[in-house]
Amino acid sequence: MEQQYFLGVDIGTTAIKAALFDGCGQKLLHRTQEYELLKPSAQRVEQAPHVYWDTFCACVKYVVQNSGVDPRLIKAFSMDSSAETIAFMDENLEPLDNFYVWLDSRAEEEANEINEHFPATEIIHATGQTPIDPVYPAAKILWFKKHKPELFRRIRMMFMCDDYILWKMSGRMVSHGSSWCTSYLWDITRKQWWPEMLDYLGLDEYQLPTLYETGTPIGTILPQIADELGLPRDLLLVVGGQDQSSGAIGVGNVKPGIFSESTGGALMVCTATYRPVFDENGCIPCNYSDMEDVYMIQGGAKGGILFRWLRDNLCREEMMRELAGEGDSYDFMTGLAAATPPGAEGLFLLPFFGGGSTPNPDIYGRGILYGLNLGHTKGHIIRAFMEGLACNITKIIEYTERLTGIQVTQVRSLGGGSLSPVWCQIKADVLNRQVVTMKNTQDAACLGAAIVAGYGYGAFDSIADTALKFAKIDRVYDPNPENRAVYDQLLKKYDLLIQATKGYTEELAK
Description:
Layout: E1 5-11, E2 15-22, E3 27-34, E4 46-47, H1 49-66, E5 74-81, E6 86-89, E7 99-100, H2 108-117, H3 120-127, H4 137-147, H5 149-152, E8 157-160, H6 161-170, E9 174-176, H7 177-180, E10 186-187, E11 192-193, H8 195-201, E12 210-212, E13 217-220, H9 223-229, E14 236-238, E15 241-242, H10 243-250, E16 259-263, E17 266-273, E18 286-288, E19 295-302, H11 304-314, H12 316-323, H13 329-338, E20 348-350, E21 368-370, H14 378-404, E22 410-414, H15 421-431, E23 434-438, H16 444-457, H17 463-470, E24 473-477, H18 484-501, H19 505-509
Helix pairs in contact: 2-4, 10-16, 11-12, 11-14, 12-13, 13-14, 14-15
């Protein structure tokens, strides 16, 4: 039987990765290329549309040209992307502005207006989401309407990142519920656009892509794009999914009782459920997944993007060493953290950069580095960042356990943070749970997309069964009991700082 290969692409916040897999889930080659985000102001985070397309093309071309595989054997393609990053297109499907990246928080006023108009219970039961904050598309759409009314009137279509790339590849305006479920425009149980929100924003359904289930084939690639990328003209294009859900597939997190955490640009903790689970407290959302009629309790926060901020602003020496060919800057940083005692000798980070995170949503929340004294060094600061993010993961997991009644004993780690044994051990110690990395940890999202591609092509009968078959544990990190007392105190500090600033964050943020 002729060998078959499947191409999976992950459109991330700060990078794109493309990877080619065979029919047994074995990776042949991957390519990652980073890009810088545009930051016109402290609250605005954007990206030029051509950067996504150019970077995507560069990664795919590299993989196709260097994998050693006959391109004619690449049978299907699918991709995932970070949700909430949105662009507005005119009647010619040309961008009216840059993509507004999910990190962008310009729409604080508009988020408040939406929350005042729609009761929290209505939002929760219609969309599965918590009361809206500025990062989500509905708030940004309202901002665009108020601040750029002439451009708003010209909107013909709205795209997420992968929608835009899939349109350029296929000429079709299509997407999937696993990304649009967090737009606040989509009814998660009825699987249709939420008319009340569309009316409030002044939108029509024709301005939104047609949604299909992840894994749905939509036809073959446009011939000119196939030729440009070096792909076969009969390559099947398959509707993909949201990056966190795709990553969960890639590590076998496809049924209730399995948890995964991803410390990429965002920090996400996910677990599957076969029914919608609505949090009446409005603290954690229920999203649609990349598998039909499967939902995901998905708590999120800013993750690796904070560590990148730390590197870019306070670790120039480590970056210069990397440029000199001495090694990886992040490895140098985690080396400093490893040489620092657990608990960072009293230094602690509350990682609310530009808003509080699950399960403590607060649009006015801000980062706090607490406990600084003259004895602290760069290593203490780095470790405090790693431990603060681990505390955030712990709180998300504990809240999810209470919400679902499912106890977590093992957490599967993926994303850039899983590359660091130091950070994985810190997570295990703070979480007081076993943390494991997978053989495919660094390719999890791409593998998830490739599984979806193979499913759409007909090579796999089930996304979930294939994911479980391909998932293999690599390294196991058990909690160190000697650090329990230190980290119990750290988790208490996390709660105390939130309690101490509760009710004052709006005034403090001014």
